Amino acid sequence: MQIRSIIRIVGLLLALFSLTMLVPALVAFIYRDGAGVPFVTTFVVLLILGGMLWFPNRYHKRELKAREGFLIVVLFWTVLGSAGSLPFLLSPNPDISVTDAFFESFSGLTTTGATVLTDLESLPKAILFYRQVLQWYGGMGIIVLAVAILPVLGIGGMQLYRAEIPGPVKDSKMTPRIAETAKVLWYIYLTLTILCALAFWFAGMSAFDAICHSFSTVAIGGFSTYDASMGHFNSPTINMITVVFLLISACNFALHFAAFSTRGLNLHFYWRDPEFRTFMGFQLLLLLVTFGLLAYHQGYDTWTEAFDQALFQTVSISTTAGFTTTGFSEWPLFLPVLLMFSAFIGGCAGSTGGGMKVIRILLLMLQGQRELKRLIHPRAVYTIKIANRALPQRVVDAVWGFFAAYALVFVVCMLGLIATGIDELTAFSAVAATLNNLGPGLGEVAVHFGEVNAGAKWVLIIAMLFGRLEIFTLLVLLTPTFWRN
């Protein structure tokens, strides 16, 4: 294994991440909130550390294999999440523990959106902006950005790209060159962010709030600058804008590229995609069930208000954003539990959403149908097809393996939380919220995670990493085969 080459790359990436600290420092200067020093200090520390890792190994530019790519991704997300906690530790407001600082940083970068902070309105603007921009960086993945703008890494970018991009099929590229593919992803991502910010601004948000919430919306993160989340604005228009951009961001970005790469907008690319149809059908079904039960229980004054709340919470939770406009945990118990389970499905592959991804659930359903047919016709040969293309059995097997690993990690993390003294409902929802990169849970974590004990928070940090790196990227490092020459 090319250890020195790996150290060189991690040093470069850490130096790249240090530059991001200058943006919230600028925000602190603009608003004169006195919170700029922690970010400038963090910038200097990370730049020096990155240089110390890079300089002694600067001439080690060797082609890396797939397993080195996995190790770089895991190392960098771990190092980056740890480095991201420095501004929280150095800032006098908020005054939080080391565990809470790490939790908030990892929650932001993995786009989980679970927070330990309260009274957000009293925090400096720079800290609020930093929390939001952490999610924006993590939404598409800083590694993909690095592949796009840092060809000086001197490696085959496909190794990093495959380890970073979510979904069961890792080899598809939108352009012939992997660096160009990464650039296209970030162009789409940036364009959606700008459009979302403008829409929020026109709908009545301040410029600061519009920018901050566009970051967490397009990243499907869920952080807000207010304790009441999107409910602070009490605006059906803002709710609808959020829903639209969450649905767009939860779709495969390759579809957006295909739809806009032709002359004008070609919506046929969306409808021809089986995963997109399944995703939208699932959203519609979930909305009908939620709205029907809210109308039946008459929890709101008008049907319009009930529909607005049902639509917003359905899309927010099922896409793993985690924004709230109301205390959905106080709805009839069936609905919060249903929405929590919907987060296990999450968004489409190649999107910024969390969960297991719609394509994997679709493949599991098709596999189940095939087994039912085999019961009736044992000797018949059936193939699983997506968009009239037969999938290799290797892909189907990988989906089953992912599902089994996902369930195993979930059970282990849940048992770990229960062992720390957390009740069963809170443990279940907390692991579901972090492993699916969702954010809010039920029980003691319905609003925030500040009351969770320190041991449980470290378990949940690990769950966030497993969810963001899609289980196998992190799990493969725990196998003896990975470390054999």
UniProtKB/TrEMBL annotation:
Keywords: Cell inner membrane, Cell membrane, Ion transport, Membrane, Potassium, Potassium transport, Transmembrane, Transmembrane helix, Transport
InterPro entries: Cat_transpt, TrkH
Keyword Cell inner membrane tagged: yes
Membrane topology annotation: Multi-pass membrane protein
Name of a matching Pfam family: TrkH
Annotated compartments: Cell inner membrane
Transmembrane segments: 12-31, 37-57, 69-90, 136-163, 184-203, 238-258, 279-297, 333-366, 398-419, 458-483
NCBIfam families, per database record: 2a38 (TIGR00933)
Family named by the database record: Belongs to the TrkH potassium transport family.
Free-text function comment from the UniProt entry: Low-affinity potassium transport system. Interacts with Trk system potassium uptake protein TrkA.
Name of the featured protein: Trk system potassium uptake protein
Species: Vibrio stylophorae
